[in-house]
Amino acid sequence: MADNIIIRVQSPDGMKKIPSTKRETAAAFLKKVAKEFGFNTNGFSVYLNRNKTGEIISQNKTLSLLKIKHGDMLFLFPSGSPSSSGEVMDTVEEDEIDQYLAKQDGKIYRNKDPQLCRHGALGKCVHCVPLEPFDEDYLNHLDPPVKHMSFHAYLRKLTGGADKGKFAALENISCKIKSGCEGHPPWPEGICTKCQPSAITLNRQKYRHVDNIMFENHTIADRFLDFWRKTGSQRMGYLYGRFTEHKDIPLGIRAEVAAIYEPPQNATQNSLELIDDPKAAAVDEIAAKLGLYKVGWIFTDLLSEDTRIGTVRYTRNKDSYYLSAEECITAGYFQNLHSNPCRLSRDSHFGSKFVTVVATGGPDNQVHFEGYQVSNQCMALVRDECLLPCKDAPELGFAKESCPEQYVPDVFFKDKDKFGNDVTFLARPLPVEYLIIDITTTFPKDPQYTFCSTQRFPIENRDILGETQVSRVFYFHQNKSRLFFFLIIGLLLDAVRTSNEDLAQTWKKSEQWATIEQLCSTVGGQPSSSLGYGAVGGPSVPASSSAMWSCLHCTFMNQPGTEHCEMCSLPRS
């Protein structure tokens, strides 16, 4: 009996205890492991160490000779497994801001306290030693207090300590049945503990991927609000900008908004419906060449209270809701589309930096901009189609029930009963406050401008207001020093992105500019009313100039030669 031992085997799916003996061979032991975990004999490898060193080979050596003792932990990795808990995936290209923050010290340095510190100038004590970026007492004593640590502070907390994150892992939640389980018929005829997704208990997320949202200037927001002011209908737009360091919070990230793109949409006073946007890919491409990326979305929820003084109703508050369940689901959908690359996740992504901004009435009955994200748990529920809105209660969601077409794991949340005790409830219905993370939204004291022009270019997709992007495809400053184009590409994009006037002048001397000047000399003198428009607002060209004409998209984007350009519906040159 003294020869009997228990060996623990840790796999990506959990740990199991394998009974064995000291005299058992490694080959016989590996067969037991294969049977217990449901692998064939060549479908996995077992190691003495988590970093995949000390592999146990199928051989006739006994476990005692391999120095495997009672209670030892071995580590199993399936063949082809891309990563393991705590293993860094160096092939994942993270965002620039993540790469930058990963190299920063992140510690919170404090000066010597003249009353409490009793040491020399070079010494340190508990009253002045640097704090870790995830220190909760420090975050709670900031003004205003910070409820959520930054994501990179959370990573430092996971990877800190004596083990240096050896056992840390960023696991994306899955609400779907694992595929490949052959021990029973597929759902709904069968399910087992190996393939069944775990139940989910919703917790308020302790970290957030973005710590601040900042619009570069008030003009960006004011022009977006003009649509509501003129029509009374709500409006939605995508936020384009960049992610930078937010220095008010240790290792924080800020989403800086430089522009708002308003896609095609149908809007009323109480609803918004997005329409397929054929130009979405072109917008993203041009923005990327300007150093801008889609960082979030914004929508209005405004009702006038007194038009004489310009006040709006205060409708979103603690007595109603901050985001409705339907808006949470939409935010989760967008966040899943724009997942966050992460080297510490075996899926190569974890969470999202995509933010949600609501323009709504505040306590002072003025327009306020409120920023949010939804939690990673909400993203998983939305991705796997497990969450529904409630028709008559916008502040409540509803976790779907299992059906023959889909197995849905149980979803719970904790709350206090009337006696003050913590009680677990089934999430049918579910208060969406468990899914929401609030983000401070600000405007700088000194306005910033990625795009500066004395003339305002018409905003896209506002035909209902009679505002169209007319055939003039460019603007001059009065000093003719900087060019602004409806479609700007290549060298000119670099000039705008870097505010390089010499580069703009170089572009002015190029063949592209000569083509535009020739176009202007041909059609520029005609009134816009004499020019027809194509399907998307492109100018139809008089017969006299049709031989030389091709739109900027055709000429400069080097699109494949087809009969007509998808951007302007004109014949290719």
Commentary on this structure:
This protein is an alpha+beta fold. Among the domains are: 4-78, Ubiquitin-like (UB roll) (Roll); 202-442, Cytidine Deaminase, domain 2, CATH 3.40.140.10; 464-508, no CATH class. It has 12 helices and 27 strands. The strands form 9 sheets. The chain has a 7-stranded mixed barrel with strand order 8-10-9-13-18-19-25, surrounded by 6 helices. A 4-stranded mixed beta sheet has the order 2-1-4-3, with helices on one face. Strand 22 (411-416) and strand 23 (422-426) form a beta hairpin. The radius of gyration is 30 Å and the shape is globular. The protein starts with a strand and ends in a 17-residue tail after the last helix.
Briefly say what this structure is.
By secondary structure, this protein is α+β, with helices and mostly antiparallel strands.
SSE diagram, text form:
Elements: E1 4-11, E2 14-21, H1 26-37, E3 44-47, E4 73-78, H2 96-102, H3 136-140, E5 149-150, H4 151-159, E6 200-202, E7 207-208, E8 212-215, H5 218-231, E9 236-246, E10 252-261, E11 265-267, E12 272-274, H6 280-289, E13 293-301, E14 304-306, E15 311-312, H7 325-337, E16 339-341, E17 349-352, E18 355-361, E19 367-374, H8 376-383, E20 387-389, E21 396-399, E22 411-416, E23 422-426, E24 430-431, E25 436-442, E26 474-476, E27 483-485, H9 490-498, H10 501-508, H11 511-523, H12 552-556
CATH superfamily of the domain at 202-442: Cytidine Deaminase, domain 2
Q: What's the total helix number?
A: 12
Beta-sheet strand percentage?
A: 15-25%
Mean pLDDT: 82
Give the overall shape.
globular
Helix content: 10-25%
Q: CATH topology of the domain at 202-442, which one? A: Cytidine Deaminase, domain 2
Pathway: Protein degradation; proteasomal ubiquitin-dependent pathway
GO molecular function, one term: zinc ion binding
Subcellular location: Cytoplasm, Cytosol; Endoplasmic reticulum; Nucleus
Domain RanBP2-type: 545-573
